[in-house]
Amino acid sequence: MIVEWCSQVDVLAHPAVGCFLTHCGWNSTLESMCLGVPMVGFPQFSDQQTNAKLVEDVWRTGVRVVVSENGGGDGTGGGTAVGAVVEGEEIRRCLELVMGEGEVGEEVRRNAKKWKELARSAAGEGGTSHVNLKAFVDEIASYS
Q1: Given 3.10.310.10, 3.40.50.2300, 3.40.50.2000, 3.40.50.410, which CATH number is that of 8-141?
Q2: pTM of the entire structure?
Q3: Percent of the chain with pLDDT over 90
Q4: What is the rounded average pLDDT of the residues 62-80?
């Protein structure tokens, strides 16, 4: 089915979604983390390279594509330069790594689930995000 627009959050929340091939913009990264969906990062520019590095190296909730050495990138996967090429086989490798039964896939899925639970806990009643938002609103309301 092809539609003009759909809610990315609704798509990511669907139980059939096993992985998210994403440019790693901050909103997409945060939505994926909050919904526990593992990622394959395909950063293009700006904050996307940093976010993809966090996804792969810090939170360990996904992997980054590696730019082809002969395609205009440096072959390190640290982001895609203008004119850089990411081969289809590289996309396949990353998807199989994240969704497969190997050690990396299991770790990525386990970490994605952990971050989902942490996000729910923080946003829930009494969680850190809930408490801080309430304190902020109370502070603003005190000025009226």
Answers
A1: 3.40.50.2000
A2: 0.84
A3: 83
A4: 67
